[in-house]
Amino acid sequence: MGLKQNLHNIREKYRGTKMAPAFNALHTFLYTPNDTAHGGTHIKAADDLKRTMNTVIMALVPCLIFGMFNAGYQHYLAVGEIEAVTSGFFSSEFWTLQNFSLGFWKILPILLISYGVGLGIEFLFAVIKGHEVEEGYLVTGMLVPLIVPIDIPLWMLVVAVAFGVVIGKEVFGGTGMNILNPALTIRAFLFFAYPTWMSGDKVWVEGATERAKEIIAGSNADAISGETILGGLAQSHPIDYSVADMFFGFIPGSIGETSTLLILLGGLFLIFTKIGSWRIMLSSVIGALVMGYIFNLVVAAGWITETSNFYGLMNTEFWHHLLIGGMAFGIVYMATDPVTASQTNKGKWIYGFLIGFISIMIRVFNPAYPEGVMLAILLMNVFAPTIDHYVVQGNVKRRLKRGKLKTA
Amino acid sequence: MSKDIKIKKGLDIKLIGEAEQTLENAVISNFYSIRPEDFHSIIPKLIAKEGARVKAGETLFYNKDNEAMKFVSPVSGEVTEVQRGPRRRIDAIKITADKEQTYVDHGKFDLNADAEKTRAHLLASGCWAFIKQRPYDVVAKADSTPKAIFVSGYASAPLAADLDYTLAGKEAELQAAVDALSKFTDGGFHISVGKNSNSPLAGLQNATIHKVSGPHPSGNVGTLISQVDPINKGETVWTINAQDLVIIGELLLTGRFNAERVIALAGSSVKKPRYFKTKIGSEIATMVYDNGVERDGNDRFISGNVLSGKRVQPDGYLDYYSNIISVIPEGNDYELFGWNKPVFDKVSNTRALTFSWLTPNKKYDLSSNMNGEHRNFVLTGNYEQVFPLDIYPMQILKSCLYKDLDEMEALGMYEVAPEDFALTEFVCVSKQPHQQIIRAGLDLMLEEIG
Question: Which residues carry this modification: FMN phosphoryl threonine (chain A) (predicted)?
């Protein structure tokens, strides 16, 4: 009784003051408020926005933990201390404390900065504008560490998160009002503000950048290649990862995006809980496969040959596109953001399909930065209201027609 | 003629405390109260001043816009108090009932009379108040002609009074009301009954009977309208509660306005949920305490069902249109980690660590707690799962919030009533007040377009 009563007293004391939202945010984290329905329905369903967001976070945790192991694995593999995995998803080479420990200490600061800076800004805006702290950032804060490269300098992350939260979300009025997905806004900011860091073959494996500097300084150690599969394909390098590696996620890439298996499980969990839209996920996959298949046909028809810049990615088997890069992660966790996606069921089909379709198109035609899914989702975020407009107009026209038939 | 209507989208919320089918006569209430706010948008012009003596069925006030439209007393007695709110708005008219009831005699009505005579008779006798119209979900305009009339004889809301039971034996009154009212329209008198029900409405002549099945809101009259003959711009339909047809019918047959009504007392706070015979406007205290709720309990009293009813105090009154009093626990307590722990004792239409999907037949004891805080609209697609009308619920709610009259009209505002949005409000993770938003939107349209 003690804690509950004390917190209640503090809440009453600060009610209506500037600091109330900040206190309430912490209070409601512990206790669901004692507010009762006033008018309208006198009973309410069990879910609130916190529960919804928490469900998404639960779906992300496996990717985060896998990312920690993978960070260590990629590093030790590159420096030649360990052997590549041989026996499937539960290979003993991968799930070692050494791998985890390196990744954990590397990723923890990124996670703390993502939540610290983002939530700090949320609290600030809540206090200034006098609204409650909204839960949207709980998911964004989790997404951000998963979509950045392991060797990102922390100051860049601070700048990007601040930009993303303020420009991507708060200026529109907070969660529910934003046009662009805040996590992707942060990612896009990083990419366009610091392009030399965010692409190329150094930033994806812990230590590669460091080693490159040492070599320039005269060290005679071997360079670490941290090239991602997409980066390799874009330059038509041979790829020495098996499909199983790609599916399980034993490949370099952004921290949480590599394991298609875990993303798939996360996606199924979101669909099962009815939090994520299966329409968007399914149609995005279809869109990506269609575009990938078209490119395969183009190659098969002989219009593009090995001399072309696009050959490497165009010749990639169409379904492999789902396994490499951020495609799966983007489809499951980013495209389905309910605020920035299409809001009508029919619109979701169109929106998702175009995301998949355009992702692969950008991936193939933009060799400088072969990850198209980020740009495709941001582009479709902008078009989602237009898609919805035409879907809703269909309903409006049907209604008008019904009226005319009557009077005729 | 019978047509089947099957609804797939919706949600049955099963609650503890459904009324048992035993009927008691409620203790006769000493005081009755009529609240003009029950007749939304009507501005009352008071006739029966404080101290006036009225008979049952005698006019208390009329509609300021149309003097012919009377609103009458449910009982005979003395007007003891007229409670007023800000700007001398009449909040309630309180009547102390006589021991011996006397009725105004309107005379037996000729059921073959034409529509205009019927209209005048209903307006003068106070029965017009039972006729509501859409668009706007208000008491029908005195000169309106409906394209069709709709009555729901199937109550699908949580804990709702079983109309098969409360209307039993009233076939003659129901038939009289249908005969008289069906003259107003060429579009038919449409009545819905439960698919497997034994409704006294099912055998009525001069009406089209629709058998409905599926989850709530299959029994909402709005669902029936949308399935049978949706409202277009410029059209009006009438809706009448099934239990009010009985009062209209009795008036036509006997000349008396008999405000008697069988109502349910239900909800998990009630020790012995059951049915009562009582009258419109009677004190709920006459029913709720005997074998009912604890006197010092922490409960919420609702005149109406838990989704769309009005909150009343324990010393409050049964409102003009309701046939149920629901009593549920007041949920004004904190819940530790309520937002992330698995939930087994609450209803949800998601599966986000909520497990009501595992036990579809379990009955729940829900309180009035919000289970969260008010937020902007975030989640999409969950309203559509419980909303069977051919309307985009989130889009129409938003258009009401930003008051775009053209858009509200285009999206189907003429077709809806607040109660159609009760389920979307229930499942809303952002805890937005949907019914209030729709009511405000309808009021705005009524004011601007009329």
Answer: 228
Q: Residue A256 contacts by C-beta under 8 Å, 6 or more apart in sequence? A: A60, A63, A64, A66, A67, A145, A146, A147, A329
Per-residue pLDDT tens digits for A104-133: 999 999 999 999 999 999 989 888 888 888
Enter the ipTM: 0.89
Domain ranges of chain B: 2-13+110-254, 20-27+260-329, 31-97, 370-448
Q: Is A134 on the interface with B (CB under 8 A)?
A: yes
Beta strands in B28-119 (DSSP E): 31-34, 44-46, 53-54, 59-63, 66-72, 77-84, 90-97
Q: Which residue would you say has higher pLDDT here, B394 or A1?
A: B394
**Class for the domain spanning B20-27+260-329:** alpha beta
Note whether B352 contacts A275, CB cutoff 8 Å. yes
* B2-13+110-254 CATH choice from 3.40.30, 3.40.50, 1.10.3470, 2.40.30: 3.40.50
pLDDT band at A310 (very low <50, low <70, confident <90, very high): confident
> Of the candidates B232, B300, B412, which has its C-beta nearest A42's C-beta?
B300
Domains of chain A, by residue range, sit at 49-393
Domain B31-97 has CATH 2.40.50.100: yes
Asked whether the beta carbons of residue A395 and residue B391 sit closer than 8 angstroms, the reply is: yes
Extract the residue ranges of chain B whose pLDDT is less than 70.
Answer: 1-2
From chain B residues 234-263, the ones with a CB under 8 A of any chain A CB are 234-235
- For the cut 90, the answer to whether the pLDDT of residue A363 exceeds it is no
Tell me the CA distances in angstroms from B90 to A24, B33, B42, B76, B327, one per residue in order: 39, 12, 11, 20, 27
Predicted pLDDT of residue B2: 57
Which one has a higher pLDDT value, A245 or B240?
A: B240
